[in-house]
Amino acid sequence: MKRNNLLMGYVFLAPWIIYFVVFLMYPFFLSFESSFLSVNILMPENTSFVGFANWLGVIFDVLFWKSLFNVLFNQVIFVFLSFGIGLGLALLLNEVKFMASFFRTVMFIPVITSITVAMVIFDFIAGPAGPIQSSLVNSHVLAEPVFWKFEQWLPMPIIAVFSAWKWFGVQMIIFLGGIASIDRSLFEAADIDGASWWRKTKKITLPMIMPQIIFVMTMNIINGLQMFIEVFMNFDLSGGPYQSALTPVLYLYQTGFEQMKMGEASTIGLMLAAVIYLLTMMQLKITSKED
């Protein structure tokens, strides 16, 4: 009986195991092997072993570190905005009883909106001829409209604002789920003691939803460092003037499919994976200490 149950367990696990091996493990080992080779996908017969040349090339590649700086700059702004908005709205909507489902649905609409459509609309709204800059110019906050795509330091903050608007709804729902799972007797005891709303939030709500906070921060790091569509739609593969919007994934795509250097592209991908791993471990260590 136990043997049959074990066999059935493996049968149900088989689709995931096949997916993991074929689409995750095999590409990883293939990329690791390619990182030591000079590979041109148009002329695979000319593949040759180059040792650590690709790794040294990426380590000393100014554009790779520039792309990494760009995306980290973007993520610092995005994480603070999306985390603050998502958590703030979750705390607010948890107190709202009238039409609560309606407000939650409205707040979640940006998440289910196509990122392509959302970026086109956002580009118009935030553009030089858009309503935001027009209002700022008319109120004399700006002397003249700003072409943010051609500035050195504006592309990443602007895209971070867009990303925060696009994805704060996911974080809000996760935080709402965490708040809903808290034992209500803790709040009732705090009410008896005369605790204010802020004290209950600080001493009960935030500590109790720490698993959700850690999860959100971790996923922000992983997904943010892999940003591609937002910058590709605005700057193609060039990364814009000064390479101010170049990201590691954009640079990887450019190296692999435009320059046809799959060995270097594989190395960039592995370097990015290592950076994501290190930053994730650092973040988990910091949050676990605070917990």
From TrEMBL:
Which GO biological process annotations does it have? Answer: transmembrane transport
| CDD domains xref list | TM_PBP2
Subcellular localization, as worded in the UniProt entry = Cell membrane
Report TM segments. 6-26, 71-93, 105-126, 154-176, 209-229, 265-284
Question: InterPro entries under this entry?
Answer: MetI-like (IPR000515), MetI-like_sf (IPR035906), UgpAE/MalFG_permease (IPR050809)
This entry carries the following GO cellular component terms, namely:
plasma membrane
Assigned keywords, A-Z: Cell membrane, Membrane, Transmembrane, Transmembrane helix, Transport
Q: Does the keyword RNA-binding apply?
A: no
The topology of this chain with respect to the membrane is: Multi-pass membrane protein
State the SUPFAM superfamilies in the record. MetI-like
> Coiled-coil stretches, from where to where?
none
Q: Where is the ABC transmembrane type-1 domain?
A: 68-283
UniProt signal peptide: none
Hey, which family's this protein in? Belongs to the binding-protein-dependent transport system permease family.
Q: Which PANTHER family match?
A: BLL4140 PROTEIN
This protein is called what? Sugar ABC transporter permease
Instruction: Provide the taxonomic classification.
Output: Bacteria, Pseudomonadati, Pseudomonadota, Gammaproteobacteria, Vibrionales
